[in-house]
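Translate sequence into structure tokens.
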Amino acid sequence: MINYISSNRKPRVIPKGLLVAIGGNEDKEYELHILTTILSLVKKQKKHIEIITTASGYPEEAGKAYYRAFAKDDDHAVGVMHVSTREQATDVSLLQRITAADVIFFTGGDQLRITSILGGSPIEKEILRRYEEEMCIIAGTSAGASAMSKTMICGGDSRAALRKGTINVATGIGLIDNAIIDTHFVERGRFSRLMQIVSMNPGNTGIGLGEDAGIIIEGGCVLRAIGSGITVILDGQYQKYTNVADIGSSEAIAIENLVIHTIVSGYGYDLCQKKYLKAEDLKLLNPVESEENTHENTGNESDPRPQLL
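Result follows.
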């Protein structure tokens, strides 16, 4: 007689917040389409934005660039957090600012700085809690986008990327666990490195964000493309074969039937249903603007006006 053991796996939590992942090099000076779209997701007039520069090797410059972009409208409270040590990641005053923010924005740089400094910290835990339990926007560009996924690409030469063991991965923040995000994707020719990761993890969808391209992810499933650039989707669900488990280090990888889609502004993709979404599909789903995600202005907002840290 076979005894079946029941699974203790918890049901998937549908987050109340939104993710905005950007491929890098977005417009920060002129039309600011992607950045103003982020602000438009907060359904109240006075918005509180916190910019986290942890990924950047030049945090002062990165912080000032995004401060100028987000502070163009004087009604918004914009703060910059230069969190560069594990000790700072436990700072109570910074934690309070994370709790109060409508938008938490990660700049670009090196995603390993984000995970090594913030990983397991009170700040990271509060970001995860707010994303799951509240209508909070978690946004990031370049490294700040790559760090969102549970499996995070953290290095590897694209020219040699379809050879086993040439791509480095680590554990990301884990805001999304059914996709792997890569950035500067088209411009830096990163197709092959994302192909390698998806071939080894075909249950995860590969998301390759081009420059000035972004996606809004609702409920951990439905994504909508924004910006002027291109987003590439690598879908491994129909993958028939790969030799990756049978070859040695640095040997070439064979992959059969990896499906590729591209989406641009007005198009989308359902990560849970593995389904391409055209404009009419998105209109029926009405992502982002659904009644459940409307953040009403209560009229009680305080204006802490956080400044540069």
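Note: The domain at 18-289 is CATH 3.40.50.880 (Rossmann fold).
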